[in-house]
């Protein structure tokens, strides 16, 4: 089922322009974003199941909307370019399992559906996509492993094994040929990665193998971020993958309360944070080392994702979970470590805003004794940063057939 809808007008909240993408009475959850195309799964109360919503909000006042709704549930979508993937609940008789499906939205109002992986009795879940590569977690072998498929020819996806070890390998994220996931091989969750340039021989390496749980990892370029309970509550850590033999760890947010569910693109990291008693969205600039608050609205804001300077999250300020967006701008999100001469507010450009600040500070200095403050320093990490000792990793991978998948083009229900 596909619908074209319009909705939503911009509202202001603090320094950011915020608005609900497609406000409605049903719960909208687990968004993903690429450019101006947002996806999420929504519980459609009229039919009693979850469908995938795809919204192009390039025109905020008149967004294009396609709904992918078939029998049973479609959940946990991910988007890259004109392709959307999700996990699809297949029911036959008294049995059911999750498969990975994909839609090509080159023609937004006429998506074409494909099956990426549909192994009987296996649960294929939590897909991620970059370019022509889809990865997911798969219950082959009795626990979760990471599989992938080359969907260059979507009618004949070429499947391959990314990680199949003892314990669970779950929740993959992909950027180009780098795949990261959370891994319970040692009994708790660690973050592990692989370079899949050679599909038949993925080159695995450790990102972080520490005591406690490291999970919900996301990769972009050479940066990985994750949530980490090493200090007893959840914090946000990251790592640079420039040298796979010596991964450099970063402390991004380690304050009181929980910081969870990070996402990263370029030099910007976002996450949900309850340091103030409810869940808000925060951000961190990896270049300027500024931490900044994105939302301070009523209710909870959770599960943020970022693409460019746009952040999406799910938000219950009006009752049901709806997907909201914000356009980030200004010195908090500037991408230069050393602002150019004349850049007073630190946003990496010289413009009228700088002139206005100069004029205002001149007036203050002549008519009051208010001091002029500089840039906000990076957020401190008050907890002890010592004692994070690595485990060592040397483990055999299980073997699987070269391609388990049949592949097919699948029409959506009307």
Report on the structure:
- With 414 residues, this protein is mainly beta.
- It has a single domain, classed as Neuraminidase (6 Propeller).
- The protein is built from 1 helix and 30 strands.
- A hairpin with a 2-residue loop joins strand 15 and strand 16.
- The protein is globular and about 70 Å long.
Query: So, the CATH homologous superfamily?
Result: TolB, C-terminal domain
Mean pLDDT equals 87
Helix fraction by DSSP (H/I, runs of at least 4): under 10%
Give me the count of strands.
30
Structural class of the helices, strands and pairings? mainly beta
Notable traits:
1 helix, 5-stranded antiparallel beta sheet, mainly beta, disordered C terminus, 414 residues, Neuraminidase
Quick take:
This protein is mainly β. It is built from one helix and 30 strands. β16 and β17 form a beta hairpin.
List the helices and strands and how they pair.
Elements (H helix, E strand, L loop, with lengths): L10 E3 L2 E5 L7 E7 L2 E8 L4 E8 L7 E5 L5 E7 L2 E10 L2 E10 L7 E6 L6 E7 L2 E6 L6 E6 L7 E6 L5 E7 L2 E6 L6 E6 L7 E6 L5 E7 L2 E6 L6 E6 L7 E6 L5 E7 L2 E6 L6 E6 L5 E3 L7 E7 L2 E6 L6 E6 L24 H16 L40 E3 L4
Antiparallel strand pairs: 1-2, 2-29, 3-4, 4-5, 5-6, 7-8, 8-9, 9-10, 10-30, 11-12, 12-13, 13-14, 15-16, 16-17, 17-18, 19-20, 20-21, 21-22, 23-24, 24-25, 25-26, 27-28, 28-29
């Amino acid at each position: 089922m596909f619908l074209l809808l319009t909705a939503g007008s911009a509202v202001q909240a603090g320094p950011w322009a915020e608005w609900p993408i497609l406000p409605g009475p049903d719960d909208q959850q687990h968004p993903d974003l690429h450019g101006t195309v947002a996806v999420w799964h929504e519980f459609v109360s009229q039919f009693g199941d979850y469908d995938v919503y795809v919204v192009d909000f390039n025109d905020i006042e008149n967004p294009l909307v396609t709904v992918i709704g078939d029998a049973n549930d479609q959940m946990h979508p991910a988007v890259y370019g004109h392709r959307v993937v999700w996990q699809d609940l297949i029911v036959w008789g008294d049995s059911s399992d999750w498969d990975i499906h994909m839609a090509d939205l080159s023609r937004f109002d006429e998506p074409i559906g494909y099956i990426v992986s549909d192994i009987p009795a296996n649960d294929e879940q939590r897909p991620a996509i970059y370019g022509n590569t889809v990865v997911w977690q798969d219950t082959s072998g009795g626990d979760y492993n990471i599989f992938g498929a080359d969907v260059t020819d979507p009618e004949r996806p070429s499947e391959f094994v990314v990680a199949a070890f003892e314990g669970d390998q779950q929740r993959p994220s992909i950027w180009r040929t780098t795949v990261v996931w959370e891994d319970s091989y040692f009994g708790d969750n660690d973050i592990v990665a692989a370079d899949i340039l050679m599909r038949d021989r993925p080159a695995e390496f450790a990102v972080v193998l520490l005591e406690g749980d490291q999970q919900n990892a996301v990769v972009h370029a050479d940066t990985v971020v994750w949530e980490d309970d090493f200090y007893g509550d959840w914090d946000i850590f990251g790592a640079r993958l420039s040298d796979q033999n010596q991964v450099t760890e970063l402390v991004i947010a380690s304050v009181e309360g929980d910081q969870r569910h990070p996402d990263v693109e370029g030099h910007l990291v976002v996450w949900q944070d309850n340091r103030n008693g409810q869940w808000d969205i925060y951000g961190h600039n990896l270049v300027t080392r500024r931490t900044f608050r994105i939302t301070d609205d009523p209710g909870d804001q959770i599960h943020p994702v970022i693409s460019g300077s746009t952040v999406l999250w799910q938000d219950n300020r009006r009752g049901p979970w709806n997907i909201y967006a914000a356009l980030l701008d200004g010195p908090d999100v500037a991408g230069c470590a050393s602002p150019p001469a004349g850049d007073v507010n630190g946003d990496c450009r010289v413009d009228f805003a700088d002139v206005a600040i100069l004029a205002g500070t001149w007036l203050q200095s002549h008519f009051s004794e208010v001091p002029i403050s500089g840039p906000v320093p990076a957020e401190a990490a008050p907890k002890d940063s010592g004692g994070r000792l690595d485990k060592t990793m040397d483990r055999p991978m299980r073997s699987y057939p070269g391609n388990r998948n049949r592949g097919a083009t699948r029409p959506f229900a009307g």
